[in-house]
User: Which sequence fits this backbone?
């Protein structure tokens, strides 16, 4: 059995960088073990598997996301990659994705130069990290004095749970070097998908790094789900005006500069995350052989 795996990099900045994702269209015939095997073989932080759910509505699709280690309930960068891949083949428009955490609308448009995708996240919430914050700081090798007091340490949600940690200066963010094993154990216990460490350049422009040990990845260069959760965090804590647009810059320390645009709308508990995606290979797919 041969499976076609599309490869895209989502949220690149100025056409470079971004976060690679695998995309498998027409995945209805694949079993869960096969999807896991493909994700492991591809080796990206996530691979998305899509299949139609309705003959009358081809724009409604079931999607499942797998890291090399496990299934992930929601993944922003693989969603953007999938939407751009579909738009390249069938034209821009609106998709409705059925994820493990509910329906996620995604719209694509062509601005004359490139395709852009905007996803609307699941409902967001945020709460103080509590006693786990101290253990997290130890694993991150950060002291309380490294933190920005304007941004409390929280667990934020937008389909997955993400620990949100704001630091005082860019140097601290650039020098981040965490204890992988300790953080992996803590995140497994707490059910956190990533740890979103950020520095506020100003109230609307943020630099971030995302640790992702549960997926078998030390660091993610662009994390759409975390950006959505972060947007909900900023809104709920009234750290930004609404309506508002913020920009999250990520991946620069990895040599994979990424740009995520987050829009916060009044009267909504969802967040919009916008980005582009670029095809990574000259051929439209790579073949993966499965038994």
Assistant:
């Amino acid at each position: 059995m041969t499976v076609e795996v599309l490869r895209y990099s989502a949220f690149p900045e100025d056409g470079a960088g971004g976060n690679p994702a695998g995309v498998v269209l027409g995945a209805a015939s694949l079993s869960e073990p096969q999807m896991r095997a493909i994700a492991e073989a591809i080796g990206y932080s996530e691979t998305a598997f899509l299949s139609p759910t309705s003959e009358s509505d081809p724009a409604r699709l079931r999607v499942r996301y797998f890291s090399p280690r496990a299934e992930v309930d929601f993944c922003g960068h693989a969603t953007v990659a999938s939407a751009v891949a579909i738009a390249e083949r069938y034209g821009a428009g609106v998709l409705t994705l059925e994820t493990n955490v509910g329906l996620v609308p995604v719209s694509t448009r062509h601005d004359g130069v490139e395709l852009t995708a905007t996803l609307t996240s699941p409902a967001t919430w945020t709460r103080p990290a509590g006693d786990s914050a101290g253990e997290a700081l130890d694993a991150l090798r950060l002291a309380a004095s490294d933190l920005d007091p304007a941004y409390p340490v929280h667990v934020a949600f937008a389909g997955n749970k993400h620990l949100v940690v704001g630091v005082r200066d860019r140097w601290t963010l650039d020098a981040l070097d965490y204890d992988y094993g300790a953080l992996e154990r803590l995140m497994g216990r707490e059910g956190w998908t990533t740890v979103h460490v950020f520095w506020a350049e100003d109230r609307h422009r943020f630099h971030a790094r995302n640790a992702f040990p549960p997926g078998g990845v030390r660091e993610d260069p662009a994390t759409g789900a975390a950006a959505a959760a972060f947007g909900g965090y900023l809104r709920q804590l009234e750290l930004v005006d609404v309506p508002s647009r913020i920009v999250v810059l990520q991946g620069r320390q990895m040599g994979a500069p990424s740009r995520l645009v987050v829009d916060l709308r009044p009267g909504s508990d969802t967040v919009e995350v916008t980005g582009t995606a670029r095809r990574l290979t000259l051929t439209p797919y790579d073949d993966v052989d499965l038994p």
Summary: The helical segments are 32-42, 76-90, 132-140, 170-174, 180-190, 224-236. The chain has six helices and 18 strands. The chain has two domains: 2-120+277-289, 125-271. The mean pLDDT is 94.
